[in-house]
Amino acid sequence: MMLEKDLDYNFIADRYEHFMKAAAHIKVEVRTILDSIGDVHGKSVLDVACGNGYFGRKLRNCGAAKVVGIDISEKMIELARAKSKQSGDDLEFHIRDVCDMESFGKFDLVVAAWLFNYAESLKDLESMFYNIARNLKPSGKLVAYTISPDYRLEMGNYDVYGINILGKEPWKDGNRYQAEFLSMPPSPFTFYQWSREDYESAVEKAGFSQFEWKKTNVLESDIQLHSQDFWSLFQQNCLNTGLNCHY
């Protein structure tokens, strides 16, 4: 199926890259994801919703033996391939919808940063987890980063962190949000929020043996750089969360 993410990110691909470099909280979130991933030396990695290949390229440079990137956005894959050509790396990229993704092999690790928040239905959410699971080796690991089921818009917008949430509405069994990256000009996008129970049900149906939610942690060095007031909302009502699953 064609997700709204395809329309969103084909339009904003260049601006999104700028946002990823400029937004203050991205460093904290990237650190959280990399901490969950751990040592990748000699491992094979499938990077779904890979965007311009940021995580896959970083993991290849950290010793991963093989990295394959998947994204629904043709524009993002074009950027990813251009960056690989420029840097001379050997990352492999494919345009795919994870809801319909075939098996690309058996990987030690799958990274899914900002993928599941584009599931428009619980069926899509379950399909994403299922297709990821069938690309993992036995004892393989999924490291995901997604919209927190606990985030509440009424507790505060996220504009100080570069994302302006324009509105929220009930959507099927979850919520749908309209938002924009505060790039110049702003870049609109849509995301979906599902409950912990919905995620955990999809994880179990896909055959994962265990899972753990991972909070995004702000370090003292982050507070010194931007102040406690700046991080207050981020710590109390974080928009995103980690989810690690073992196959």
Automatic annotation (TrEMBL):
Gene3D superfamilies: Vaccinia Virus protein VP39. GO terms for molecular function: methyltransferase activity. The keyword Transferase applies. GO terms for biological process: methylation. Residues 45-140 form the Methyltransferase domain. PANTHER family: TRANS-ACONITATE 2-METHYLTRANSFERASE, TRANS-ACONITATE 2-METHYLTRANSFERASE-RELATED. This is Methyltransferase. It comes from Xenorhabdus vietnamensis.
